[in-house]
Amino acid sequence: MATRTGILFLLFALAGCAAAPRPQAGASACALGEASYACQVERYHAVSAP
């Protein structure tokens, strides 16, 4: 009985995690400074992307 209850709680926890909003891919490199090398690469890739 205790094993079934544990499995049930585990399934509910996993179902709750699946419905949670996903975090963003990450902060933009340009948030720290527009003149940084990482920001320039990010801008280049954004313009070059199809």
Q: Give the end-to-end Cα distance, rounded to a whole number of Å.
A: 56 Å
Report on the biggest sheet.
Answer: none
Helix content: 55-70%
What is the H-and-E element order? HH
Strand content: under 5%
Low-confidence segments, ≥5 residues, pLDDT <50? none
What's the overall average pLDDT, rounded?
78
Structural class: mainly alpha
Large-scale geometry: rod-shaped
Q: How many β-strand stretches?
A: 0
Tally the helices: what do you get? Answer: 2
- Rg: 21 Å
Structure description:
The chain is mostly helical and 50 residues long. The chain contains 2 helices and no strands. The protein has helices spanning 2-19, 37-48. The radius of gyration is 21 Å and the shape is rod-shaped. The model has no long low-confidence stretch (mean pLDDT 78).
Could you give a short description of this structure?
The protein has 50 residues and is an all-alpha fold.
Topology readout:
Blueprint: H1 2-19, H2 37-48
Which terms summarize this structure?
mainly alpha, rod-shaped, Lipoprotein, 50 residues, 2 helices, signal
